[in-house]
Amino acid sequence: MIQRLTFAFGLLLLTSTLSKAQMTDTLFVVPDSTRIFTLDNFYRLILKNHPAVKQAGLLSEVARQEIRLARGNFDPKLEAEFNSKQLNSKAYYDIFGSSLKFPTILPFDPSIGIDQNKGAYLNPERYIDNEFNYQQFYAGISLPLGRGLFTDERRTALRQAELFKDMTEAEQVKMINELLLDAAKDYWDWYYAYYNYRLLNKSVRIAEEIFSRVKNNYNFGEASGVDTVQAKITWQQRIIEQQEAFMNFKNSGLQLSNMLWDSLINPVELDLKRVPVLSPDAWTLTPEGLKALADQARINHPELKKLEVKIYQLEAERKLAAEYLKPELNLNYYAINQPINPHGDFSFTIYDNYKIGIDFSFPVFLRKERSKLALTKLKISNTKFEQSITERQIINSLTGIYNQLTNLQSIMANQKQMVESYERLLEAELLNLQQGESDLFKINVQQEKLIQAQTKWLKLLAENERQKAQLYWAAGTYRLNN
User: Fold this and answer.
1) CA–CA gap between residue 267 and residue 429 (Å, rounded)
2) Torsions phi, psi of 49, nearest 5?
3) pTM value?
4) Cα gap 378→323, rounded to integer Å
5) Which helix (DSSP H) or strand (DSSP E) does residue 332 occupy?
6) What is the Cα gyration radius of the chain?
7) Residues 112, 79: contact at Cβ < 8 Å?
8) Between the CA of residue 186 and those of 179, 218, 252, 399, 467, what are the distances in Å?
9) Which residues, in sequence order, are bridge partners of residue 335?
10) Contact call for residues 278 and 28 (beta carbons, < 8 A)
11) Which of 14, 240, 283, 397 has the fewest C-beta atoms under 10 angstroms from its C-beta?
12) DSSP string, 386-434
């Protein structure tokens, strides 16, 4: 009788210790031999070394080269020409001309040049007297008074290239956010696998101790052979569950390693001594918190930023198309041998030694120009509609995930209460065992239900964090105010 009471008391002590320790902070107190690996640490390593992040960084270089390409339209241009004709021992002409043009972001283009023409059969327009050895300097500008005064192809291309830089930055943020979302999912899978393994590891030790006690009592004639078999089966079942949990923990660690790279872009295996933890989060599940995320999404979400930049680019196209509705009217003025002549003398007069001209053209019906403008306006309207739809989808997605989180946290609260209830039932069943009103089978059933409830609570805890990561991603970030 004393031995049976001793067995019951020991069983009560062991299982009570298991049930209390598993749902308190002791489960999450990691051993001193391990090293904490937080989600923020994980993010920092990814942002520093992951090839996909490096790949996203190339978009910035692409944007810089696009801007450089557009600015190339404003590079100074050196031109030279030489023509000579000799026929039947007669020098018909020698024509040489060179110029340096300076395209600017302003509506006028300055240029300077020198001509040297001589020969018996020169076109009179090209004639230069011998005062300066048949040489003639000129400097002047071409000024558009109609089309091209406010914008032109060069300035529009530069503006669009600058906007393209903003678009690539938004695309870069989008790529990184998607990468970190996958990383967060892997991290919380690893988190669940680790703490579930710790939970089942404890259950194995308890089941082994119970089997040992039952076996001793059987040897002393205080327990039946069936009790011994039942205790062994329970112990074996816990070992199987532990092995499955350990394999899940190892595989989830391997999956996490896919995100780890060193500075030389070599893959890195996750250190087995590193363990996950649940760090405090500044964001709280409140309507105000949801509103803050929604406001941030409206301003910084990469999809909305890309559409905003696209509208700006189309506006630049619209201004250029509207410019083509104007007549082409260019004023050209070139001062000849002013202010410096080929001898180096300074002189300038506005009434002499110049060449001036006006170019004019204007399509009669403007069908091409009006169609181009109308098409651009339609593209702008279409993009604005797309922007409105996308914004609504983003806000609704945020609200939907917020609702899931709200429901999930309610389920978590109920699940934790269920765990506490199963703990009380197990304690009651152990008390009944002391009084001879229960048996090992009932104890095992209650303990099995408790372990299942605890495992589900851990799974819900990890799912809650995954949903938070999904919420941040839906807001176009991976952290609030990031």
Assistant:
1) 52
2) -125, -15
3) 0.84
4) 17
5) strand 328-336
6) 41
7) no
8) 11, 47, 7, 24, 13
9) 139, 354
10) yes
11) 240
12) HHHHHHHHHHHHHHHHHHHHHHHHHHHHHHHHHHHHHHHHHHHHHHHHH
Looking at this protein, which amino acid is placed at residue 304?
L
Amino acid occupying residue 91: A
Collapse the DSSP code of 142 into the 3-class scheme (helix H, G, I; strand E, B; otherwise coil) and give the result: strand
Q: How many CB atoms lie within 10 A of CB 444?
A: 19
Q: Which helix (H) or strand (E) element contains residue 292?
A: helix 287-300
Q: Residue 186 class from Cβ within 10 Å (0-12 exposed, 13-18 middle, 19+ buried)?
A: buried
Domains of the chain: 2-50+155-316+377-474 (1.20.1600.10), 79-104+108-147+328-361 (no CATH)
Instruction: Give the model confidence (pLDDT) of 130-149 as tens digits.
Output: 877 888 888 999 999 999 99
Higher-confidence residue of 385 and 229: namely 385
Tokens linked to 327: 């007549």
Q: Which two tokens stand for residue 110?
A: 């300055």
What's the whole-number average pLDDT of the chain? 87
CA pair distance 207, 14, nearest whole angstrom? 9
Residue type, 148: G
Token couple for 190: 């690893």
How many residues belong to the chain?
482
